[in-house]
């Protein structure tokens, strides 16, 4: 399997790509690819119940940049032919980082170069994606970015009442 270089363009998620902002999917740079299609999975590695899928994208015509700001639709008109799956929130498309207040989590972007398009319906889940991708993978790369949310602060007078 050949390597891909995956560059999200940040080590810490900008707020616009999180639940505290516009929850807008980020653009991802992918270098070194020669396969005709790309696929991506983004997962929270630190979710208390195990890896939590935030985004599944496949059948993206190969390019050096996966576009950002994709609509929450199963079949995309741009990039033409690309499809998105159902994340672990139960919605189609991207859902950004949203750890509990006071926590910081790591998010893994897995990008695959595919030798053929995947035969999956729009909205397929992570399990179906995993089954379909196996023999299509020609290239692989990953990157990690973090996001943390500040703990909620309690006004001093309320804090004094708790003693």
List keywords for this structure.
163 residues; Phosphatidylethanolamine-binding Protein; 9 strands; disordered C terminus
How does this model look, in words?
With 163 residues, the protein is mainly beta. It has one domain: Alpha-Beta Complex (Phosphatidylethanolamine-binding Protein). It has helices at residues 126-133, 156-161, and strands at residues 2-3, 5-7, 28-31, 37-44, 52-61, 65-66, 83-84, 104-114, 137-148. The chain has a six-stranded mixed beta sheet with strand order 1-9-8-4-5-7, covered by helices on one side. The chain has a three-stranded antiparallel beta sheet with strand order 2-3-6, with no helix packed on it. Strand 4 (37-44) and strand 5 form a beta hairpin. The protein is globular and about 45 Å long. The protein starts with a strand and ends with a helix.
Q: What is the structure about, briefly put?
A:
By secondary structure, this protein is mainly β. Helix content is 9%, strand content 33%.
Topology of this structure?
Elements lengths: L1 E2 L1 E3 L20 E4 L5 E8 L7 E10 L3 E2 L16 E2 L19 E11 L11 H8 L3 E12 L7 H6 L2
Parallel strand pairs: 1-9
Antiparallel strand pairs: 2-3, 3-6, 4-5, 4-8, 5-7, 8-9
